[in-house]
Amino acid sequence: MGHFLQHIHGRYAGEKKKILALCMDGAGYSVADFTQHLDTSIPKVTRIVNEMIHEGYLTEIGKQESATGRRPSLYGLNPDAGYFVGIDVGHHSISIAVTDFPGRLVHFADVIPFQLKNQEESVKQMCQLVLQHLSSEDIDQDKVRAYGVNFTGRVNHSTGYSYSYFISEEKPIRNVLEECLGKSVSVENDSRAMAYGEYMNGLTNEEGTILFLNVGWGLGMGMILDGKLFTGKSGFSGEIGHFPLLDNNQYCRCGKIGCLETGASGSALQRLMMEKLKEGRPSILSAAFKEGKELTLENILDATQQEDVAAIECIEEIGSTLGRAIAGLINLFNPDMVIIGGRLSSTERYLMPPLRSAVNKYSLNLVNNDTVIKLSRLGKEAGAIGASLLSKARLVSEWA
What we know:
The protein is α/β, with parallel strands linked by helices. It folds into 3 domains: about 1-80, Arc Repressor Mutant, subunit A; about 80-195 and about 385-395, ATPase, nucleotide binding domain (Nucleotidyltransferase, domain 5, 2-Layer Sandwich), CATH 3.30.420.40; about 205-375, 2-Layer Sandwich (Nucleotidyltransferase, domain 5), CATH 3.30.420.40. About 40% of the residues lie in helices and about 20% in strands. It has 14 helices and 14 strands. The chain has helices at about 1-5, 15-25, 30-40, 40-55, 120-135, 175-180, 190-200, 265-280, 285-290, 295-305, 310-335, 350-360, 365-370, 380-395, and strands at about 60-65, 75, 85-90, 95-100, 105-115, 145-150, 155, 160, 185-190, 210-215, 220-225, 230, 335-340, 370-375. The chain has a 5-stranded mixed sheet with strand order 5-4-3-6-9, sandwiched between helices. The chain has a 5-stranded mixed sheet with strand order 12-11-10-13-14, with helices on one face. The longest helix is centred in the last third of the chain and has 25 residues, at about 310-335. The two termini are about 15 Å apart.
């Protein structure tokens, strides 16, 4: 974490870090506000604020409302003070989001082709790809304060290990990333980062309980409980896809039978569609199937957008299965909001009606009435933005 903190030094270093931590919420604060927060004198805080403006960390962002007299100035983070970069690692590509110092998105790049492997050299190649991309977009590497990197599956952000992309017992993937990128790196599960991105910059930023369902090739969940991202004791929370809910005799990639993911995910959609094609159901994908071509998830999603009846029926079945699971989550957590994201959320028109119907059927009415179900507002940007904002939040936690 020292790369950035080295730039904040001098006899007021501790106070400056606390002021930065306070301002990270994007609000404006007066000298009087800082004085109260630091429990010190107004002359001292005035000197500190002036120094931080000169150093480029703070800027005046407006005036405080006042019924009488002179309105005091409000200070906030200077957008030019630095960047935070989020990297969302998919199966065959990565996405990159760059946010400024206050947390506003300044750059996003989606589907940059790259397939990460369980090898240190592959991680280094990905880092070089990221650095090259930032350079091509004129993002000054010296002004990048921290990186956040998302991976699918089990990730322990405290130890820095990803068990989907395991390097070695002695060397967590975070260490490799920090060596290559030269800055502090936070690693996280993709669904949790997406949940955090929505919470901080999407549908809501109010304290509460929010469940984010990431319906992609697999099925994951991120949880905001009482306004805080929940990771679990070992950082492995949110494995809703491996909840043993279904009696379908389908083997999951985890080796178990009947996991929710086998009936409510992109992989489930592909299996259901293949079953219909084998049965001879007419579809715009029938010709490609008969020719022996591989039908990808994107092919099936495209067919859904073209109103292919067989593909729509598969989506509706997934929506019903997912809705039943969400009903159980609502009964268990009584959340303020359930957010549906991931690649299958693009099929909203066909996914959501059976999903809502199943929620109404299986959840308790008194509990269900208090929960709002919405689609992700950040969409494909959620993971990378969440990673970026998490990298900032975890850096700031060192200062407060």
